[in-house]
From TrEMBL:
Belongs to the indoleamine 2,3-dioxygenase family. InterPro entries: Indolamine_dOase (IPR000898), Trp/Indoleamine_2_3_dOase-like (IPR037217). The gene is LOC101388028. Its EC number is 1.13.11.52. Keywords: Cytoplasm, Dioxygenase, Heme, Immunity, Iron, Metal-binding, Oxidoreductase, Tryptophan catabolism. The keyword Iron applies. It is an enzyme of class 1 (oxidoreductase). Coiled coil: none annotated. Monomer. Residues 365-386 are annotated as: Disordered. This is Indoleamine 2,3-dioxygenase 1. It comes from Ceratotherium simum simum (Southern white rhinoceros). SUPFAM superfamilies: Indolic compounds 2,3-dioxygenase-like. Catalyzes the first and rate limiting step of the catabolism of tryptophan along the kynurenine pathway. Involved in immune regulation.
Amino acid sequence: MAHGMASPMENSWKIKEEYHIDEDLGFALPNPLEELPYPFDVWISIAKNLPTLIENDQLRAEVEKLKTLNIDDLQGHKLQRLAHLVLGYITMAYVWNKGDGDVRKVLPSNIAIPYCKLSEKLGLPPILVYADCVLANWKKKDPRGPMTYENMDILFSFPGGDCGKGFFLISLLVELAAASAIKEIPIIFNAVQHQDQDTLQKALVDITSCLHKALEVFHQIHDYVDPNEFFGILRIYLSGWKGNAQLSEGLLYEGVWDTPKKFAGGSAAQSSIFQCFDVLLGVQQSAGEKYAAEFLQEMRTYMPPAHQNFLHSLESAPSVREFVLSKDNAGLQAVYNDCVKAMVSLRSYHLQIVTKYIVIPAHQQSKKNQTAEEPSEKENKGTGGTEIMYFLKSVRSTTEHALLKEK
Ligand code: HEM
């Protein structure tokens, strides 16, 4: 965990171990576990067979048969993260089943009780989050081989063939490419502290190059994710019960709360990596559209608490943007702007992806249904439940506003 990242200087800014950030993998969980001990292994058996159990109409009955297990016996962060991932998959499958509109509004107590207790322990909500299905849902085929798509796999799948593998692994690989830039953060703050403009300039160049690599990796999504499978199948299983007309009251976690609770679906908006560079560069999402700012802030509550704390610690550090602004250094301002532009490019590319994977299939579907000329509100929403294009364009435009006027 983040060993060797700290500068030897006294009072230097460090990435503390408690932030759960790996030197190579960033926010991803290193080498996630795949097996739970008895009696929890029964959850794994169900989660490993979700597509078949759903197809054969057996999934809900299998879940209803489960004993209520006491999660106090599950010790250790990695085991608990695996259990959260597995219960998240099972819960999504139980609620959405075949994805044909036959939804369940009550999660039975035999799964709701351990799931909510575990979620409380981990500081995560009781729904499948990005920290589960992307950050903790991977393995290398050859453990000594590289972290490449070809040498990797996901641990659990929803129906929809390899679409889930493509979506989760590409998200992870984008995250990993950008993660190399996290190492530069202590260097940057220490350079600001010591007024060392050359070191700062070099670190900003390195961050830009990592963000460019992340953009290159993003392109691979076209090779591995089919728009119709994503839109028509996977998106349904990632949907939450907040702002969702199918569960307008939310989901009742039987035996835990007396009233239904609303939680947003799994989305890469819950990734810490973009928010991390926004904060570092002084991109003030909080000063942008109120709705977008609130949504991004809310998404933080779906991140592991250690990562939320890390973002918070970045916010309390000295402002890199103010420092760059205060220096009459055209070279430094240019490399700062390159970094911000790299974030803008990532967001522009992401907008194209969302057009291909959500907006166009939504139009096609509503034409097929001939119910409306415009895609219905439900179809045009992301899994997190936002009015997506409006939201994403506003986030990009706030990023652009951070650009300094070039001299
Ligand atoms: C098929 C591919 C993808 C689709 C359809 C997609 C869709 C969306 C949607 C609809 C949102 C709006 C929030 C919501 O309603 O959930 C969103 C937000 C976001 N997505 Fe994606 N996404 C995709 C891939 C990725 C990948 C690979 C990443 C990077 C790891 C990513 C990072 C983000 C971020 C950071 C946000 C928050 C907005 C921002 O900070 O710009 N997305 N995405």
